[in-house]
Request: fold
Amino acid sequence: MTNQMTHQSELERHYECVSFYNREAELLDEKELEHWLELLTEDIRYDMPLRVTRDRGSDRSEFSEEGFNYREDRSTLEARVERFQSEFAWSEDPPTRTRHFVTNVRVADVDGDELSVKNNLLLFMAQGEEADGTTVSAERHDVLRRVDGELKLAERDIRLDHTVLPMKNISVFF
Amino acid sequence: MATEEDSCPHGDVDRSAAMTDDVTTSSRVERILDTHREALQDGQLPMTVYNDEEIFETELHRIFGQCWMFIGHETEVPEPGDYAKRYIGKDPFIFIRGEDGQIRVLFDSCTHHGSQLCKAEQGNSSHFRCPYHGWTFKNTGDLAGIPLRDQAFEGLDPDEWGLHEAPRVENYKGLVFASIADEGPSLEEYLGDFKWYLDVHLDIAKGGMEVIGEPHRWRADSDWKSGSDNFSADSYHTGVAHRSVFEVGFGDEDISGTAGQETQRHVTHADSGSTSLRLLDPEEEIFFGYPEEYITDENLSDEQYEVAAACGAATGTIFPNLSFIHLAATNDPDKPLDGFFSLRQWQPVAPGEMEAWSWVLVPAEASEEYKQRAYDVALGTFSPSGNFEQDDFAVWDGIAEAAGTVFADKQDVQMNYQMGMPGIGKAEIDEDWDGPGTAWDDNLEEGTCRTFHGNWQKAMNGEEVGMRYPRDHI
Reply:
């Protein structure tokens, strides 16, 4: 019985995380950025470290501790969203068509109200008449926190599979 | 102010002798270069040069194969064995500090059969071993090991087969440059009058500037010249291209927005470079947004110090592809403006395609808290996700697309670079300016961009780089 409960609870957790990511991806892909912000905790930490090719034998992580493409908090994310809504934000004119494919969702740890969740992201982007589009691959290390009964994103570490970015700018969220 | 032709250190150089013409150009390239020369005299620029296979190949040889190229900052390789992978044009090199403490720029290719030695972008190593046959080189470039040497290479003198290296490497205040041409002016001669302006940025902080983190690297369907041209500087674009950042509050419009205010200056014809100085009321002492405790007047002249004190934003380009921005801005409209310095390099990848590299620098003696704050400001303004920089890259690819058209070639389409030329606009030379080069009393002028394109023209014709007014009056 206990095993079954644990099992059920794991299934529920997994389902809840996948539902969260599906909802989040939909908001991002639909450009509902104000609503996306509502999925983030007040103390959100949103990072994308630079990735650097190291020697195969190196004991240093490929993910930089000093260099970042994003190192955001709620206030800087809100400011970015506000800018994207300006008619003079040329990087999003026309808006980038994105599709967030989130897979391999793994709840790595449960600590009180917080879940540490790893997942894979394949982000497809196309702008204007661009035929090929650009695909960026990453793993996300997230912390999802239960706030008033709902999961919210408290931490995100976007771990790119690229060292040289294959795009002219980062004008979308991952 | 050095405006006399006599004061030019290279004025008497025999230009044909200075020329290293190691690439033959087609009659079509010669025609484009002729058109470029005539057009620039009239403040126009043939669009084709921004995306053309033959022009690109000629650039690789005559510009990137000849000029002093930025390799990196010495604080990126502080310890013996520290290295970083770098490129001169498209050629791979290892920027490395050897066990003897000396910085070298080694060609990333085994001297035996040519394989690549360096796989990592940055690291520390005493040796590099070739994965093909196992020749091993010290971090000084010396050949240290040959498998089966006694049988296979008895009689070979290893001293003759160390790694190839850039023949000329020089360090200017922490900035390491290399040239793959055997002959040419020294780095200081090459930088020329622009050193005065570079010093303002490198010497204003106590202890100088240091690099934080690894450089950003990202690809764009823009020509490398778009970055150089924009930072050289184009002050006119900020009010339109960057309008959204002022609406939200990432920057102050008086500091980095509206052009044409009477205290702002453009400096053109400063040999290797040109710059925009967004000067404010000198009483305000803004120093690019740095707290005053990080500032020193010890290494600057009074005139240089006054420029730094009044300057809230500066951009510039050293020919061909090293640019910088020194800016007071913020990544968060709820936080005050703070300063950072960024070096950026626009690397050629293919015609109309570049890889941007960007380094964030901060005052070396600043608190750790300030350094992190400055990094955040740089990240939020000038980086791949920078709220300013996103919009620059969003407009540059359109230039490369148009430049690559049959129409631009057939119709010889010219772009307009006439702002500030006689009869166009109101900019006048500021005769009271204390620094070298030619200062203009209004940044609504494009002599800065014309200085870059003038140097391009010189280099592409095999002449020495170095723009002087009035000799190179464009």
Remarks:
- Strands of chain A lie at 40-51, 63-72, 97-111, 114-126, 134-147, 150-160.
